[in-house]
Amino acid sequence: MEADAIVIGAGLAGLTATRELKQAGWTVRLLEARERVGGRLKGYALGDGKAVDLGGEYFGDKSTLIAETARSVGVERFSTYDDGERVAFVNGKRFTYGGLIPLRLGPVALPDFGRAVLKIERLARRVPPDRPWTAPDAEKLDSQTFWSWCRRNVATAPARAFLTMAVEAAYCAGPADLSMLHVLTYANASGGFRYLLEVTKGIQRYRFDGGAHSVADKLAARLPDELRTGAVVRGIEQRSDSVVVSGPGFTARARFVVVAVPVTLAGRIAYTPALAGFRDQLTQRMPAGSAIKCLAIYDEPFWRADGRSGQVTSTDGPFRVAFDTSPADGSPGVLSAFVTGRAARTLTLLSPAERRSAVLDGLAKGLGPRAAKVVDFVEQNWLDEEFTRGCYHGYATPGTLTAHGPALRAPIGRIHWAGTETGVHQLGSMGGAIDSGRRAARELLARERGERPAGRRAEELTGHVQ
Ligand SMILES: Cc1cc2nc3c(=O)[nH]c(=O)nc-3n(C[C@H](O)[C@H](O)[C@H](O)COP(=O)(O)OP(=O)(O)OC[C@H]3O[C@@H](n4cnc5c(N)ncnc54)[C@H](O)[C@@H]3O)c2cc1C
């Protein structure tokens, strides 16, 4: 046998699983399709040793796993810049404000928004992130989209627009795409719905000095014998005593395999024997969100001197939200515009020049004409990435969690599943990836001790024994 385990995908999930198994004395091969590690974490070098993130970036006080992992490899954090006024465009009207929502939204819309957030918060608390299908009213919640829920529960147009904008920015999907049960699961796993939307008081409180991708780079640097990049896995064959993993130019054999790639991409690998339909159907129902992250780079963060935080939100503009993502010392000035959900689907059809002009125009409307005068503009279209195919995470469409949720983590024969979508703590985020990698490693180590894997196996759930 070549190795005890093969791990597919060197994002945070696969890197974590590999690290844990190696520490337990296992021999591991970590196969990564790209020529870099980090997956949905990717950096952009600004010069002078500084870098910013084109992928995952923020974390909060409740994000204990990513904080702990970063500490273990010596990556420091700093506070997100969040001083000064914010700008919002709601159904074409411009507001400046502090806090979560513009107070001038109106005397009826404001309490309407507040009530809706409270309602979602209460519902989310009742959804266990590890088994959302067991939540009270799970089927009812899973048969609604976020949009249909809003139509029943949010009375005013501005409150509805602001709420769906916030969800589109946080989940990268249109409100009509998302199962309400998924919205609640993700919110509860993240630390709460309001927490998910907040900056300083929420999940966007901190960033990593040198970028979040440097956590992945440093984890990988400790796995030189395990990691192989440029290894695109196309097939997984289960045999009675082993599993054979193959791709162009390589074949590897081990006792077990951990598939640590996004759910949709896991469904594109060819399995022999074919995967139980129950699991394959899950991979057809958890599409990746849609996001293009754009960096507008300036000599300095000029908006700070104007008393602005740099945050611009828009219910109908080219991006849903933009933040000040300058390095810790504020030089150079960087704004990150998140083109997400329906906006991403529209803007992906434009040429890069048209996209740049649309995004800069949106920033200039929010922060003044200086915002259009960039020294550099960089975009990362995650929809186009062959080994990601969208982000921030794979979301559940209506009916998926109640019908196929148990297949998310259930091992199939010698195949175990990781990846942020299978995490529990902060699923969908960096923390979820780490949580899933640790859990997958624990499952393998438990099998070694002769224990049954935690949770039920897919073949038991389906009666389909492989
Ligand atoms: C724009 C953006 C913003 C985000 N913002 C945040 C944020 O602020 N905070 C936060 O916590 N999270 C954020 N996220 C989400 C976070 O980045 C992800 O949840 C996390 O990085 C996922 O890690 P993973 O290991 O599960 O998957 P991935 O990072 O996707 O890793 C999977 C790996 O598998 C590889 N792979 C795929 N197919 C194959 C194959 N066939 N063979 C071999 N290898 C393969 C890929 O190349 C990749 O390296 C964001 C993501 C994006 C893209």
Overview of this structure, please?
The structure is a single chain. Strands 1, 2, 9, 10, 11, 12, 13 and 19 form an 8-stranded mixed beta sheet that branches. A 7-stranded mixed beta sheet has the order 7-6-15-16-17-14-18, sandwiched between helices. By secondary structure, the chain is of the alpha/beta class. The longest helix has 19 residues. It has 3 domains: 179 residues, FAD/NAD(P)-binding domain, CATH 3.50.50; 148 residues, Alpha-Beta Complex (Polyamine Oxidase, Chain A, domain 2); 91 residues, Guanine Nucleotide Dissociation Inhibitor, domain 1, CATH 1.10.405. The C terminus is likely disordered. It has 17 helices and 19 strands. Helices cover 34% and strands 21% of the residues. Helix 1 packs parallel to helix 16. The structure holds flavin-adenine dinucleotide. Flavin-adenine dinucleotide binds next to helix 1, strand 14 and helix 16.
